């Protein structure tokens, strides 16, 4: 497929037990609705995630598999997938199965009803299925981020998002940037919209982060994003 309308990008690390079910759910949600491709980016998994993905290509013609030769992190995996994607719009999902692919059509419907300046539709987990400590840490982090960045986004950590490929690739790249996409899109002059989505408990595998890791990295990145916003300069351009 040379020019799908949508590319679904899924970064994964050690998710061999979640891959097949999620691929099946993506195809069930999108076949017959839009021309799409699925771009999995294996971030140098230590289990047989890559082999499972390669096996699924025989029965899933929409599936493409990219592999990092060294582990590089989720933001880099997302950017790898977006750079290689053929669609003008990108939907992202976490590879752990907690995001529901059935919500992708909901994001597409929101895009169809929105102003053209909205370049990012961010999932908003209104009924999270994580542990109590993880939900508390997320609320704390979102409150601080919203106060500092004023991005009017209740949930930037949700993995399911829909955005324009060109707009994303124009953003400054740094590790963990995927957690700040609304603020970065707004910095670039675009509008963003939050859309309530489903959230599911993890049924296989283990989380790759703990609350302390997220908190320490998040505070450092938050300062960096705030600095980027203060240094931003935009102007309209006319061709004459």
From TrEMBL:
- Record-linked SUPFAM superfamilies: Nucleotide-diphospho-sugar transferases
Respond yes or no to whether keyword Transcription regulation is given for this record. Answer: no
Q: Which UniProt keywords apply?
A: Cell membrane, Glycosyltransferase, Lipopolysaccharide biosynthesis, Membrane, Transferase, Transmembrane, Transmembrane helix
The molecular function terms in GO held by this entry are: undecaprenyl-phosphate 4-deoxy-4-formamido-L-arabinose transferase activity
* A biological process from GO: lipopolysaccharide biosynthetic process
UniProt keyword Membrane present: yes
Q: Which Gene3D superfamilies match?
A: Spore Coat Polysaccharide Biosynthesis Protein SpsA, Chain A
* All residue ranges annotated as the Glycosyltransferase 2-like domain in the record: 7-168
GO CC terms:
plasma membrane
Superkingdom of source: Bacteria
Which N-terminal stretch is annotated as signal sequence?
A: none
| Protein name as it appears in the record | Dolichol-phosphate mannosyltransferase
Q: Which organism is it from?
A: Stenotrophomonas chelatiphaga
């Amino acid at each position: 497929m040379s020019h799908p309308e949508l590319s679904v990008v899924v970064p994964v690390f050690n998710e061999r037990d979640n891959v097949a079910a999620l691929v099946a759910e993506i195809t069930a949600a999108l076949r017959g609705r839009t021309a799409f491709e699925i771009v999995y980016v294996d971030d140098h998994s230590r289990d047989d995630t890559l082999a499972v993905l390669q096996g699924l290509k025989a029965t899933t013609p929409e599936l493409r598999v990219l592999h990092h030769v060294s582990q590089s992190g989720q933001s880099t995996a997302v950017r790898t997938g977006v750079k290689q994607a053929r669609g003008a719009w990108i939907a992202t999902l976490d590879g752990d199965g907690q995001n529901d692919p059935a919500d992708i059509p909901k994001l597409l419907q929101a895009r169809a009803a929105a102003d053209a300046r909205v370049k990012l539709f961010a999932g908003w987990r209104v009924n999270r299925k994580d542990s109590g400590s993880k939900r508390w840490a997320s609320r704390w982090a979102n409150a601080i981020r919203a106060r500092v960045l004023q991005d009017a986004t209740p949930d930037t950590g949700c993995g399911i998002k829909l955005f324009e490929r060109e707009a994303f690739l124009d953003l400054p790249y740094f590790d963990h940037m995927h957690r700040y996409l609304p603020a970065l899109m707004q910095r670039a002059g675009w509008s963003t919209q939050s859309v309530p989505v489903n959230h599911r408990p993890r049924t296989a595998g283990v989380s790759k982060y703990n609350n302390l890791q997220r908190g320490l990295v998040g505070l450092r990145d938050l300062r960096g994003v705030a600095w980027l916003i203060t240094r931003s300069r935009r102007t309209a351009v006319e061709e004459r």
